[in-house]
Amino acid sequence: MIKVNENFCRLAPNYLFSEVARKIQTFQKANPEAHVIKMSIGDVTRPLCPSAVEALHRAADDQGHPDTFHGYGPEQGYAFLAEKICQFDYAPRGISVQPDEIFISDGAKSDLGNIGDIFSPDCVAAITDPVYPVYVDTNVMAGRRVVFLPCNEANDFVPELPSEPVDLIYLCYPNNPTGTTLTRAQLKVWVDYALASGAVILFDSAYECFITEADIPHSIYEIPGAERCAIEFRSFSKTAGFTGMRCGYTVVPHALKGVDSLGHEVDLNNLWRRRQTTKFNGASYPIQRAAEAIFTPSGRIQIRESVDYYLRNAAILRQGVTAAGLSCRGGVNAPYVWVKTPDGITSWEFFDRLLAQTHVACTPGVGFGSCGEGYVRLTAFNTLAATEMAMDRISKFKI
Amino acid sequence: MIKVNENFCRLAPNYLFSEVARKIQTFQKANPEAHVIKMSIGDVTRPLCPSAVEALHRAADDQGHPDTFHGYGPEQGYAFLAEKICQFDYAPRGISVQPDEIFISDGAKSDLGNIGDIFSPDCVAAITDPVYPVYVDTNVMAGRRVVFLPCNEANDFVPELPSEPVDLIYLCYPNNPTGTTLTRAQLKVWVDYALASGAVILFDSAYECFITEADIPHSIYEIPGAERCAIEFRSFSKTAGFTGMRCGYTVVPHALKGVDSLGHEVDLNNLWRRRQTTKFNGASYPIQRAAEAIFTPSGRIQIRESVDYYLRNAAILRQGVTAAGLSCRGGVNAPYVWVKTPDGITSWEFFDRLLAQTHVACTPGVGFGSCGEGYVRLTAFNTLAATEMAMDRISKFKI
To answer: What ipTM was estimated for this complex?
Structure first.
């Protein structure tokens, strides 16, 4: 019989969201009159902005006429979008990223999952804990050893440098699930470490649009030397409500080099280009046109309104949690609020009590890794009305 | 420095299409008055059908309103599309494929590239020659050994069973680039071989809509037992002009099993589901709605018209080539015509002479593998007018 990639058999099953759904369903069945509010959702709820909708309509018409029909596009994405990304996402921050260093795709999850293709299976991956499960699972699938970097109260949610040599370092800031950030000085420690040790930082900045404080870098390339040690992943999902549209991009600078087993220098931009041209056929043309539209003057105002709406929800969440006498992190530069459970009760116990008493659902932090035990995550993606109602209930919550 | 996946360094550079483009450009520069007709293009030219355009408009509106907005969808695709695929692509041929055996994606190229993730790097891949380069390159990237199966005049373009044990067998029928097919009896030989030897057939049926003859299977699952030894890849690219839209699907039957190194049976459907839920976030919602529309009564008529248009071009190609005294294969059940160069001249020499004398560009067969030497590929994807003009010129071609 066919031999499978048995690294898959080493994957830990992830029942987090299905278990949350099952518990809500059971509670709702037992309490049919209860109005459950889900502050556990990780998906956006506001519709696509009008500028992107209009662009999608125009692209639909393009596809219907022989003179404007677009067939196969460049695997790395259209220049019309890559140029806008350079112009609006990087140039204003003094970062010189060239269009041919941008690889547009169907989303950051695909890129974060596939990037491992270009690295040796012998590489050791350093991954913060708690964490977005994709980083861990994709490295387990590739047979790589994973070293965890705890993020907790003891280190103020700033991971410490690894105590053993590592090759790939996954950093996501603003962070999912904790909502915490790294300052410029804190991120510089990691860039300097990667440059000195020859590691690559895989920097997930999917939530950069939620940053409100001045000292928090939006891009790792704000740190000098990062173009020689970092790949950056960006998504239009949360920035522009593209979770169902599917578009993101990855930056692989020309200055970033690897090495083969003979010691020959290898250009990682070329390697990723070869991976993408071989295993990917480009993001959808109409979707790229919709993404382009968020960089128009009206598009930029519209997506900013949605981000501000979610940030207002996040502030309300923080107020409610604090009023209940609970401590929390995040919610200032991120759509996530990370709530500490009191008296050492577990994530799941807190989930159960909160649901039973307030009919509000959260996400147990332990589902994101062992260092998430003793925390729960609330998200800012529900409606303002639902968020206000949830926080009114939570502010009266007695554990 | 970071250790790269050095299998990438073993990839053969592929200059085929860039070299064709360079030669055309050079010729055009030297002969500015010449009207070059490109019969080398592999992309569709007819616009998206009206039903799909209308569906894309409706989906754009859906995305613009909170009540109909679609965020993250199922990673394996929406049921509304999977059910249509079962109903129209399989049930009418007596094939019982269930919706949860269908994995909708951003295209067959991605799936064909990524499917290797679930198999052991120790697997040996058998690949026909000449061939679509993605099969070879993705296996080289994974460090797998590749065994080539020659397809030539000697075996009437029907590959012979491998002379050594293999694990993964790539078959593409109707074939790109030769345009040849396997009959039911010929495909049954491969299914029986795979069942007996414990191999998996990766069956690429991206061109099944071009089949006109009764004895040619549209799906490998028309062959008894194939559900226990085959994965099928389908694309809307050529069927419905979706090359720029990006949508396809892969069928992984529940009956298909693999084995880990301890001899435990592993369900390949579960394995691919785990791969896709971890490294992919679903195909775009508006694009899936457009794909659904090709299964409506009007959509089915419209996409059939385009396929018939290309098949008419293919027939014209065959007539022109035959009138020139050349022999060819394909073009009856496929959009490709595979022309034998006369007098043992090479693919590139024929390309040069055809371009110089008739101002028609073809694709040299050797670019698809060493067994493609002595052949060139013509495609049916140009307009009817361009195809007629090209064939008028080719019919008078004197080598």
So the answer is: 0.97
Give the up-direction half-sphere exposure of residue A141: CA atoms within 13 A in the CB hemisphere.
27
CB atoms within 10 A of CB B281: 25
Q: CA angle at residue A47 from A41 to A51, to 5 degrees?
A: 145
Using the Cβ of B225 and the Cβ atoms of chain A, whether some distance falls under 8 Å is answered with no
Kindly determine whether residue B65 and residue A45, on different chains, have CB atoms separated by under 8 Å.
no
DSSP lists the bridge partners of residue A172 as A204
The torsion angles phi and psi of A258, rounded to 5 degrees, stand at -120, -170
The CATH number of B8-47+298-395, from 3.40.50.150, 2.40.37.20, 2.40.420.20, 3.90.1150.10, is 3.90.1150.10
DSSP secondary structure string for all residues of A176-211:
TTT-----HHHHHHHHHHHHHHT-EEEEE-TTGGG-
Pick from B200, B141, B98: nearest CA to B9 = B141
CA terminus-to-terminus distance, chain B: 54
Q: What confidence tens digit (pLDDT) does each residue in A130-164 have?
A: 999 999 999 999 999 999 999 999 999 999 999 99
Q: Is B253 on the interface with A (CB under 8 A)?
A: no
d(CA B317, CA B320): 5
Distance from CA of A43 to the nearest CA of B (A): 6
B268 vs A218, B134, B192, B230, B275, CA distance in Å?
41, 21, 19, 10, 10
- Rounded distance between C-alpha atoms, residue B125 and residue B107, angstroms: 22
Say which of A69, A107, A259 has its CB closest to residue B2. Answer: A259
If you search the block for the tokens 């480009």, which residue do you land on? A282
DSSP state, residue A225: T
| A211: its two tokens | 């940053």
Burial of A215: CB neighbours in 10 Å, binned 0-12, 13-18, 19+ = exposed
Q: What is the dihedral of CA A159, A162, A168, A173, to 10 degrees?
A: 10
pLDDT over 90 (residue A398) = no
Provide the residue ranges of all domains of chain A, joining segments of one domain with +: 6-47+300-395, 50-297
What is the helix (H) or strand (E) element at residue A111, kind and residue range? helix A108-114
Burial category of A94 from C-beta neighbours within 10 Å (exposed 0-12, middle 13-18, buried 19 and up): exposed
Which strands sit side by side in the sheet containing A265-267, from one edge to the other? Answer: A265-267, A257-259, B2-3
Mean per-residue pLDDT, A367-378:
97
Q: How far apart are the C-alpha atoms of B89 and B205, rounded to whole Å?
A: 12
Are B245 and A285 in contact (CB < 8 Å)? yes
Q: Is the pLDDT of residue B17 over 90?
A: no
Residue numbers in B near A48 (CB within 8 A): 63-64, 69
**Domain A50-297: which CATH class?**
alpha beta
Q: Does A14 touch chain B (CB under 8 A)?
A: no
Distance CA A255, CA A228 (A): 5
The domain A6-47+300-395 is placed in CATH, from the list 3.90.1150.10, 3.40.50.300, 3.40.50.1820, 3.55.30.10, at 3.90.1150.10
What residues does B283 pair with on adjacent strands? none
Residue of B nearest to A286 (CA): B245
- Using the 8-state DSSP alphabet, how is residue A82 labeled? H
pLDDT digits over A72-110, tens only?
A: 999 999 999 999 999 999 999 999 999 999 999 999 999
CA A271, CA A115: separation in Å to the nearest integer? 10
Per CB-CB distance under 8 Å, the chain A contacts of B117 are 5, 141
> Tokens at residue B368, please?
């698809």
| Cα–Cα distance, B60 to A43 (Å, whole number) | 19
Task: Give the pair of three-digit tokens for residue B55.
Answer: 């569906």
Task: Measure the CA–CA gap between B348 and B351, rounded to whole angstroms.
Answer: 5
CA B235 from chain centre, in angstroms, equals 8
Q: What integer best gives the mean pLDDT of chain A? A: 96
pTM of the model: 0.97
